[in-house]
Structures are given as structure tokens and as C-alpha cells.
């Protein structure tokens, strides 16, 4: 049994989608970020930077923080979406998500979506970086079915929930043919639909 410490954010959804994909039994413990649950000392014992997602694998008596590390752990445990022979490429795209795509789109959310009008410099900077990421991902996906080659992997699972915020980005996902194709294909997976709405609130994946 995996316990997932979760909030409805792209980083949280990476793990709920993965758990649905591998069909593991899991339960969700919600962390209300707006109320500061992440600073609870019990939670900080498993997530020292006070961030979701985190997991406890109760059977194997081990906990993890950092979504990339959690995805690798679950992939190795299940033997899915982390093809050993392709792991170097998968690792690169997973790290691209962890180090670039997530943090940069996260800043774009802060300046453009939540706090527009507060900093012209911040808005412009992260809007431009977000546009460049769309362009670069689109270009990459013109030669590749999925981020790390022909097979769906944990790199796609990590990246998808960020692109699922495309309405907030105001870049126009539709204009990016290859990224749109990738997005639509992943949106149709049953595990992705279920993992996206793991709290069963009826939330739908935003369509293009
Ligand atoms: N690099 C971390 C990022 C996690 C992260 O930024 N989580 C956010 C929600 S999406 C959070 O818990 N923020 C609460 C806080 O910083 O107080 C990961 O991939 O797990």
C-alpha cells in the first residue's frame, strides 16, 4: 500500500497518474498547501523541504520526497515506463522536466496567472521562457513519439500535468502540432484521466 501525500497541482498529479498507470493500491492523504499543512513536523519528516508530493511505501517501510525520485522508485518497483535499455534518455527528459520545464512554467504561473500586473520584468521573462519551452518540446516531438523515444515513459508522466495547465499559459497549445498530438494521445489514457481526477471531484483534463 502506497500512501500519497497530495495536493491538486501538476507535481501531485505526476504521482497519482503513475500510481494509476501501474495499478498499485494507494491511498491519498491530502496536504492543504493554503493552510500550511506542508509545514507540519510529521510531514516534514518525510518531505524536508515541505513540499508535495511525497509517498510512504508502507509495505517496504520507505518514504520518498521529490517527484522525480518517486517516479523512478515506482517505475523500478513495477517494472513499467522506465525501460532499462532506454534509461539514459528517459533520465535526461525526466531531469529536463524537474530542472527546467516544471520550475519555469511554475514561475510563469506565478507572474502571469496568479500575480499579473505586479512585475513587467517577471511576466515577460517567464512568458518568453514558457514560449521557448513549447517551441523546443514541439520541435523535439516532431522526431519522437514520446519524450524519450517511441515508448511512453515516466518522463512523459512527469511533463504531462504541466502542459495540462496550457490554458493558464496563454501560448496556444493548438499552434504546436507535435506537442498537441503528444498531449492528446496522453490525455486519452484511462489511467491519466483517473489519476488527474484522483480526488474524484469530476475534474477533467483541459482539452486543446
Ligand atoms: N521539485 C519538487 C517540487 C515540488 C513542489 O514545488 N511542490 C509544491 C506544490 S506543486 C509545494 O508543495 N509547495 C508548497 C510550499 O513550497 O510551501 C518535486 O518535483 O517534487
Short description, anyone?
By secondary structure, this protein is of the alpha+beta class.
Separation of termini? 35 Å
Strand arrangement across the biggest beta sheet:
2-1-3-4
Q: What would you call the shape?
A: globular
Which value, in Å, is the CA radius of gyration? 17 Å
* Percent range for β-strand residues: 5-15%
What structural class do the secondary elements suggest?
Answer: alpha+beta
Question: Based on the structure, what is the oligomeric state of the protein chains?
Answer: single chain
Count the DSSP helices.
9
Can you list the ligands bound to this structure? glutathione
- Sequence of secondary-structure elements: EHEHEEHHHHHHH
Kindly report the average pLDDT value: 98
What does this entry look like structurally?
The chain is of the alpha+beta class and 208 residues long. Helix content is 54%, strand content 9%. The chain contains nine helices and four strands; from the N terminus they run E-H-E-H-E-E-H-H-H-H-H-H-H. It has a four-stranded mixed β-sheet, with helices on one face. The termini are far apart. Bound molecules: glutathione (GSH).
Strand and helix map with partners:
Blueprint: E1 2-6, H1 10-22, E2 26-30, H2 41-46, E3 54-57, E4 62-65, H3 67-78, H4 87-114, H5 120-141, H6 154-163, H7 166-169, H8 177-187, H9 190-196
Parallel strand pairs: 1-2
Antiparallel strand pairs: 1-3, 3-4
